[in-house]
Amino acid sequence: MFSDWPSELVPQQGWGDEAAISAFKDAVPWSVGRDFVAGTAKHLASSLGLTKPGPPIRSKIIHDKQLQVLMPALGYGLSFPLSEIDILRDCVSVYCEWLSALLPNPKSSVPAPILSDPNHYARIVINHFYYLFVPRGAQGPDVINRQAVLCHRVLRTLQNIAQNSPCLSEDTWQTLLLFLLHINSALLSPPTVKEDAGEQLCERVLSVLFETWLLACARCFPPPPLWNALRESCQRWRHRAGLIDQWNRINFALTGKLISFMYGPSFPEIKFSEDDLNIIPSTMSRDCIAQVWYRILHIIGNPVDLSRHTVISKTPAFLKYAISSELVIEPSQHPCLQMLPSIFLSAMKGVSGLVDAFLGVPNISLENLNQKGHHLSSSSSLSLSSEGRGEDSTRLLASGRAKCNSILHLFGPWLFEAALINCNMQASVGSQHKTDASGTAGSGSRRPVSGFGGESSRKSSDSSVPSEPQNDRLANLSPQHFQGGRAEALGALCRIFCSKKTGEEILPVYLARFYLALHQGLRQTDAIVTAHQEQASFTSNKYQGSKIGTCSETAASILVNGVDLFRLDLQGVVSLVPSVLGVLEGVLPEAEVHAPPHLPVPLLRRAATHVLLSILPLPLHFQGLQVKEVGCSSGERVVLSHLRPQLVNLLSNALQVETDPANTQMLLGGLLFCVQDAALCEVMDSISQHNFSADRDHNIMSSGASDTVSSHGDYNSLLDDSCETLPVGDSLGPVGSSGLSSTTSASHATLLSATDTDGPPSFEDPDSAHALFVRAIYLVCHRLISSWKSDVNVSLAGLELLSGLARLSIAEQDGLECKRAVKWLCDYIAYQCSRPARLHSKDLHSTIVAAFHCASVWLVAHPYLLHDKECLGTILEVIELGISGSKSQVKSSDAPRLKHEKELKPASMRVRDSAEALLSCVLSQVGTFPSVCGAESLSSLLDELTLLRHCNTCDVSDQLTRDAAVQHFRYFVAQNSIMLALLEQPLGNHQAFVSIPDPQPTVTALIRGPFGRVAWTLQLRHLARHKSSAKLYTVNPGRPLPMNDVGIKHNVNPKYFPDSVERIPLCKADKSIPSLESVMMVDEKSATEHDKLLQILDHQIAFEDNIRRQVEREITDYPDVETECVALPLCHEFQTARLLLSHFGFLSLDSLQESVESAVPSLVALDCSMAGFAKDLELLDTTNNRTIDTGHVFYVRAGQTNPHEILSNVVSSSSVHPHFLEFLGGLGWSVNVHQHPGWTGHVSTAFTVTTLPQDAPFDVNHGGSGFSGRTHVLYWSDALSEMAFVVPSPAPAQPNNQPAAANSVNMGIIIERSDGSGGGSGSEKSDSLHSYEVEVDQGSSISSHTSQMSFGHGNENRNRKFGRQTSALSCGDHKVYIVWLESFEDSYTFPANDLLSETITGRESTSWKDKEACIYIIFIHALTNGLFRIKLQGQNAKLSMAGPLIDGQVVSRRVLGTLVRQTALNMCRRKRLESDSYQPPHVRRKLRIQEMVQKYRYEMTEPEFYSHLFTSPLC
Questions:
Q1: I need a labelling partner for 236 at 20 to 30 A (CA). Which of 216, 562, 800, 935 fits?
Q2: What are the residues whose beta carbons fall under 8 Å from the beta carbon of 733, sequence distance 6 or more?
């Protein structure tokens, strides 16, 4: 920079007024001169008032000539040896006092000539001070300390003058700067020697030099010769560690000021200590700061020269030492150069810190720079920390940061050169994955890019860092010792390139050098690798079978700082995959890894896992791509798809040894992605081979929705091109499909013919989807039981992976492996339930609940498993364990215990609920899902209104209301959990009177239970249906033949008492009862009543006589030929409801009475005529029997932050990414909200089928707005869950100025809203103590607010409770956003809270507020290479990291929709698991039924109940 300017740093012998002092010294002998100087200095010092009390004496020196005599003497005294310390002290005191003439208030002892011309004499004094700092040779530590004290005093004085003097001239400033340069050269230029003055004063003299220099720049800018002198001097001091420390300190201070006015106050500031806050003068202008920053940055020359000891030692001082020393032959052999590795590392840390400052990394400070370990930057540590994974409260990089090219223009030459030190550019590629301790690759024509060369350096490179104390000769300094600084440079380069913004261009020359540097840095060439391998070899010999992985410092730095390398659109980055893969194999598969110092092994493995997850989709995405590896001169190319088996093995091996929970969950997400990607890729390949699709990539994302229904043709077929735009109202396909039937039958045959073994699976093709499926099941199940069962987050991640595997449609499914998976799940549940009571906690029960859910998914997806007797028995045993808390038969040899013999003690009520849900799934869903109603509804779509409209005996109008319809039904509740609605009228079907003259007794039952609503029509038949169709009688059966021989009829009057009774005499007791006559004579009233009774008897006797005579007259003529056999008329009054209840055993006396266990009888009649009954019945029907969730999809164009602009993006397909609509098709299928019986994303349209509005056209060219929920939504469901995906868009203009969902206010209050979690105060202990059986005087369990809005019956229901409590207001108002980004940087500015108003579902609590909402966001960024980068935000809860998607993961197009949907579902499930007040859907339905029992129960006795059965419900 200043090479054309001469340096003002003159030789040391000519500095310090040498001529005047030499004349004085030569004029008199040493002793005379010493006495003169001592006396003069003592006299002058005594007048200063420093040694004696009292004010200072005014100086008597009034002429310049006096000073011309005294000052050379004082200067001469400053050159005295340190043995004359008193003389030196007096001279220093006099000069320091005289320099106060430059201050605003000079001391009174300052001579008058100095006061009159202070700058002139100050320059002389400053020159004389030089002799004080000149080293005196070898001295003891005490003597050097005395010199240091005087030097410190002089430096303080000069620094005070520089800061506070108002009259410093330009010449004085230059003299002061030259003085500081000369004393630093005198002290620091010589090689470092123990206990010398330079070592003790190094930090102080350098800090004064740089701080004074900065003051001079602000007040009197130094000329170019001085800058050149400073540069030349600093390059001679580079062997001093203090120089680099001060250089970093000044650079950070200047950079902080520079950034503050370049990027504004919003840019992250550099943190400074209190001592460095005011190091930059406040008067320095911005232009001056920029000039000084750039000059100071280059003041030490090229920092990479610090790695070349031959360059550093090429100074006159080192040459002089080598000439005068007997031990050091060459200057480069001085022992002080042993510190160069740490000095080089410190310099590269400083450059790395400056890079972070320009990138906008928060909390950058010099203290953190010195405290952090090698190559571990604050940005990388934040991005890899598990705590800050999903929450972006603090951005890692500033949005207004500099471009990569700009930073590389500044620091690129240094960083690239530092990254390539000791690298042979012609090293063979074949050795890149092998450990090369020498650091070179044989002989080559090109010289390594390093200051080390020749045979001596190659020999010394095999040695490790010396641990013995320094000798007089330089020993064991090899290029490997500089790997720390090299790693720091590589880390800085990685952070620069990883800061690339979307659409930002980086110069190709920088990319090429960067890839070359990474390729060399990834080669395991460090000496530490050799040492670790030797240690690993020793350990493996000592402990057979153990392996230890190794990772060099440079490779570790690249992994930690370059986690985003494959997540960005870097051109040609795929060429690094082979090199990176070799490093990953040394880190991930080994249980123990020798990482560089100061780098935690879990953090290194986490970085390696991030890199692995970003590489996983590349082989299948670029199947035919041939990659030429960086640095390969042989022309060989690697086919990227051939690396896939290596990646899969690396992933599975890493899972086997990983112990960190966060890393394990990341690996599980990658494993599920591999299996799903392989399965869908094979399906698409088969489709392409059979020419079922003209375009290979057409609609490959929408196929992801096909894993919804395992036995449904329309939703499961990957060949259906119309899956994305499924017409509204289309009838569902057949329940089974041919492809699935063959797969199921084959798997069933395999399951029945194979024997279950616990050994690892074996397969031929390890790269196929089936092989990955089997391997994943075995690996995850084995680790889940062996080592993951105690960690709740890892267990949940493993169970989520197994659920994802269960939904996969693989051509060659192995029934035995599926059976093994279910068996392992049951074993896992049994083990968790059997753990000691002290270990039972909410987290433990959450894993059990998740395991039950996973088992349900497996059974629904693989119904043939229940055909296996052993598998069915295992499932039922674990269900029994979950419900009752114990098994009836622990061992096969034990006698089973009956139900009434066991005590009902489940692990917790949550576990019991999950077991009941699994039991219901086994009995009602396995093998039958989806039902004839479709996947949208598990319940029957028939209700009271529909049944009455199809009833031919009941004349109903079209305006029939629900209140009127329920009056035709009888309502009973059985077992306090099942509601029966019985209609005693035949339906208008083939059983009507018009078609069959003899209809059977018919009853139609609507059965509402915890798990849904079903409709049955039952008939009383004495024969089977196929037999009862034949006529068993003729039209005229004929008259029976008379029997004339009827015998003799004897008319005998019976006697009730013997004849002897009249002869028995009466006793007094017989006479104690008065006769009838005596009573009539006494009482007239009795006589009247007796007369009336006699009249009644006479009338009855006459009537009976008349009847007897008539009967006798009719039978006298028998047999009569005119009398025919006529069949009796058919009975039409059967009381079919009574028959049904009687046949099922509900009409016994015990069933109608309260018991000890329950205050509610087994059968209870409900009064449907009460007000509010129909409304509560509708509320029960809208309480879904599956979990319901909603995801809201947004499309953000580059730079958008306005909510209205974001919503407007999806109006037209031309304004969205070409793959966005395909992605939407992969989330689910399109349904019309008016004809859809399931969840629609809003309570106003959910669970009801209405007429289509006439003014709601569907725009086929929409960009996603067609799924806004007004007419259509995207829907997905299985037997356990429902999820709607809504794409909010701007609301159309309302003609009546009414909101689109104005009718949803009331519904939003009464719909059950506890699907999510809330801040309930319940505990797991109380959860496990209460049961669902409640007292009669208890009431509403959902919420008293809901009860009062549904009906108003006073205060009797206000304090009623049922079982486990929840509150409608304590629901989890969580939201799931799925955001498609055109620019990844917009993820930091996405207005999530501003869009909450567009995500209202009607299920929010009444106290819901925007700021209280818990928002989960899945960001999707489409890369230019066709892959997609994922970013997750908001997973900061205890049960965090819901998979399978991982923050930062890169996925392929074919599985994007499936993985996003599964992640959104798992986020909601984990939120529910975390809630203390969450109730499963079947529990909420059960509680609503119990609530209706308490409100509408008939209070009747047993006789009244029986009589009620014989009356019509309309009476």
A1: 216
A2: 712, 713, 714
Residue 970, token pair as written in the block: 């009888």
Is the model's pLDDT at 1419 over the cut of 50? yes
CB 147 within 8 A of CB 129: no
Residue 726 has pLDDT above 50, yes or no: no
pLDDT for the residue numbered 1458: 92
pLDDT class of 446 with cuts at 50, 70, 90 = very low
Of 1241, 1284, 1288, nearest in space to 1263 by CA: 1288
Quick one: pLDDT band at residue 48, thresholds 50, 70, 90?
Answer: confident
Q: Which token pair is 141?
A: 């530590």
> Rounded to an integer, what distance in angstroms lies between the CA atom of residue 780 and that of residue 259?
50
- Please give the Cα distance from 1348 to 1367 (Å, whole number): 14
Query: What whole-number distance in Å separates Cα of residue 334 and Cα of residue 321?
Result: 9
CA 250 to chain centre: 41
Q: What share of the chain is helix, strand, coil (3-state, %, to 5)?
A: 50, 5, 45
pLDDT at 392: 41
Q: How far apart, in whole angstroms, are the C-alpha atoms of residue 424 and residue 484?
A: 18
Strand-pair partners of 1276? 1283
CB count, 10 Å around CB of 319?
13
Looking at residue 971, what DSSP letter applies? E
Q: Would you list the DSSP string of 1141-1203?
A: HHHTT--STGGGS--SS-SS-SEEEE-TTSTTHHHHHHHHHHS-SSEEEEEEEEEE-TT---H
Structure tokens at 1186: 């599956």
Find the DSSP H helices in 283-325. 286-297, 309-312, 316-324
Q: What is the pLDDT of residue 1037?
A: 59
pLDDT of residue 471: 45
Residue 814 has pLDDT above 70, yes or no: yes
Give, for 681, the enclosing helix (H) or strand (E): helix 661-689
Q: How far is CA 1134 from the centre of its chain?
A: 62
CB 1454 within 8 Å of CB 1341: no
Comparing 152-161, 321-330, 446-455, 898-907, which segment has the lowest mean pLDDT?
A: 446-455
pLDDT for 1328 beyond 60: no
Contact between 483 and 553 (Cβ < 8 Å) = yes
Residue 929: Cβ-neighbour burial (10 angstroms; 0-12, 13-18, 19+): buried
C-alpha–C-alpha distance, residues 200 and 194, integer Å = 9
Q: Cβ atoms within 10 A of the Cβ of 475, count?
A: 14
* Distance (Å, whole) CA 1284 – CA 1244: 14
The region that residue 223 occupies, defined by phi over 0 for left and psi between -120 and 50 for alpha, beta otherwise, is: beta
Residue type, 25: K
Q: In whole angstroms, give the CA distance from residue 988 to residue 947.
A: 9
Please report the DSSP string for 89-157 in residue order: HHHHHHHHHHGGGGSSS--TTS-HHHHHSHHHHHHHHHHHHHHHHS--SS--HHHHHHHHHHHHHHHHH
Interval 591-640: pLDDT, tens: 888 878 778 888 999 999 999 999 999 999 888 888 887 766 666 788 88
| DSSP character string of 501-527 | PTT----HHHHHHHHHHHHHHHS---H
pLDDT of residue 610: 93
Calpha distance 611→617 (Å, rounded): 12
CA distances from 521 to 511, 558, 608 (A): 15, 8, 15
Nearest CA to 794 out of 666, 627, 911 is that of 666
CB neighbours of residue 822 within 10 Å: 25
d(CA 1339, CA 1349): 15
User: For residue 101, which of 22, 169, 17 has the smallest C-alpha distance?
Assistant: 169
> d(Cα 728, Cα 447) in Å, to the nearest integer?
73
One-letter amino acid at 186 equals A
